[in-house]
Specification:
There is one protein chain. By secondary structure, this protein is an alpha/beta fold. The chain has an 11-stranded mixed beta sheet, with helices on both faces. Strands 1-2-5 form a 3-stranded mixed beta sheet, with helices on one face. It is built from 19 helices and 14 strands. Helix 13 packs across helix 14 and helix 15 crosses helix 19.
């Protein structure tokens, strides 16, 4: 932040009088409730990066609900992304516990404009990822006539630690879900500030993929998100529902996740401390992340930190999902999945046998494992990888999407179901098919010939962005020049297929989805 001078003061006061002034090669200063920010411009789109939407969740604020950021007096130069939240892996070096930042891309030329707003929640299994990843850059999507916001939120044990001592110190007995509370705080920030970027606070769409998709679905049932958004798009992931089939440890049960919290405290040598929470809060953030060692996978259980049904940010019981028609926000949704959701999880797996597959199903279905094997069959070891891919595609993603669509139909609100099966000629897609996340390049329009994308991919991206933007604007994705997308009805069971051509289909994985409905521990059959 640069210090004030009288020249800067005068310039800022002039610019703030107009809200935002954008020239051909730059953007002006935008007034926020916490202080003024200045972004950069490229090709008619303003980018405001690394804006703090909450106070740094450090020290005594670790494992506390997010607080408003401290106001600043000078102009904040919003020209670079904030750090990722602490995590292991490729983004570790770029991560920091002071990570609650968001980014805004806007095509608006003045603050009086009222454009639809799209707020993106990134994926990464609630343990990895950041809003700064190149695939989420919002310039190309914003160019379609929307204001795009991407959000960092706390991850892993720093974002979702549930522990009895945290519940005991909380005035509302809340423990866990801090990352979800961050997302809600970011939506409150959007409500207060997005008009200054030309966005309409009464036309907000939340959208996300994988863990971001699950976050979107959970926000539709959170009692704390009322009035903060008006439409939702969930790409590959429902509200915890389905997650227990990815790994049985990931089930949203507060007591189960609290046991993981107590185990983490043991690993950090804090369980027997005189002040256990003080000990935990004193540990460096990356020590906490490394102690959690969240490597839970398809064939092993370990510590896992993700949203829990706590009775505060979310309903108290996962079984409440069966009444989504009553508890769900009455907002229209787009929900869907890709054609090969499981291949990314199988990457690097060796020695897949029928016996290992049967054990995999037994861990998820107990006495009904034989029924699951009949619905997701194999004839030999060579079939196992394909069967697991299909199982994850259906049970973890496609069936939860259909469940959400049916719940919305019962509530009298519209939903649109899709499957994405276009396989681009990229290195990753040649290996993994229409993998988990293949749709991201098409939603954001971030693709290049060097990566293997073709004119056909760019045309499909144009159509996908048009559907998404139409939906953000009106709640209906349909528009001129686009293949008709029928609103979901259980009786017809129609969906839209994003393949080499865009076309309607019906009865998506019907036998398998019906089976998951019947055997789910949530009792989904009505």
């Amino acid at each position: 932040m640069k210090p004030w001078s009288w020249g800067i003061v005068a310039a800022v006061l002039i610019e703030l009088a107009f809200g935002m002034l954008a020239g051909a090669d730059g953007v002006g200063v935008v007034a926020l409730d916490s202080g003024p920010v200045r972004g950069t411009a490229q090709d008619g789109v303003g980018a405001f990066l690394g804006i703090p939407y909450a106070a740094p969740p450090v020290g005594e604020l670790r494992w506390k609900p997010p607080q408003k950021p401290a106001p600043w007096s000078g102009v904040l130069e919003a020209s670079s992304f904030g750090p990722a939240c602490p995590q292991a892996g490729p983004l570790e070096a770029a991560s920091c516990e002071d990570c609650l930042y968001l980014n805004v891309w806007t095509p608006a030329r003045a603050s009086g404009t009222k454009l639809p707003v799209m707020v993106w929640l990134h994926g990464g299994g609630f343990n990895f990822g950041a809003a700064s990843q190149p695939e989420y850059h919002g310039r190309n999507l914003a160019r379609q006539g929307v204001v795009v916001v991407t959000v960092n939120y706390r991850l892993g044990p720093l974002g979702y630690l549930a522990h009895p001592a945290l519940a005991a110190e909380s005035p509302s007995a809340m423990a866990g879900n801090y990352g979800l509370l961050d997302q809600i705080e970011a939506l409150k920030w959007v409500r207060r500030n997005i008009a200054a970027f030309g966005g309409d606070p009464d036309t907000v769409t939340i959208f996300g993929q994988s863990a971001g998709s699950r976050s979107v679905s959970l926000l539709t049932i959170s009692p704390l998100s009322q009035g903060l958004f008006h439409r939702a798009i969930a790409q590959s992931g429902g509200p915890i529902l389905g997650s227990e089939y990815l790994t049985p440890a990931f089930n949203g049960d507060l007591e189960a996740v609290s046991r993981m919290g107590r185990e983490l405290s043991v690993r950090l040598d804090c369980a027997k401390a005189a002040d256990e929470l003080a000990c935990l809060r004193a540990r460096p953030s990356m020590d906490v992340v490394r102690a959690a060692d969240c490597k839970t996978g398809l064939f092993e259980d370990g510590l896992f930190f993700a949203p829990v049904f706590d009775g505060q940010a979310l309903p108290p019981n996962p079984a409440d999902l069966t009444d989504l028609a009553g508890s769900q926000r009455r907002v229209p949704m787009i929900v869907g999945s890709t054609g090969n959701e499981g291949t990314a999880y199988l990457r690097g797996e060796r020695g897949l046998t029928v016996g290992k597959y049967e054990a995999f199903l037994a861990a998820r279905f107990d006495a009904r494992a034989d029924q699951a094997l009949a619905v997701f069959p194999v004839s030999g070891d060579a079939d196992v990888a394909g069967a697991i891919d299909r199982f994850i595609t259906v049970a973890v993603n496609a069936q939860p999407a259909r469940f959400m669509a049916r719940a919305l139909e019962r509530s009298g609100c519209g939903a649109y179901l899709y499957r994405f099966t276009r396989t681009p000629d990229t290195t990753r897609a040649r290996e993994l098919g229409a993998f988990h996340g293949v749709d991201l390049a098409y939603v954001f329009g971030n693709m290049s010939e060097a990566d293997g994308y073709t004119a056909a991919d760019r045309e499909l991206s144009r159509q996908v962005m048009a559907y998404w933007v139409n939906f953000a604007r009106t709640g209906d994705p349909n528009g001129p020049g686009l293949a008709p997308w029928p609103m979901y009805r259980a009786a017809s069971d129609e969906f839209l297929e994003f393949a080499d051509t865009v076309r309607a289909g019906k009865d998506l994985y019907k036998q398998q989805c019906d089976f998951i409905d019947r055997v789910s521990r949530f009792g989904l059959t009505r």
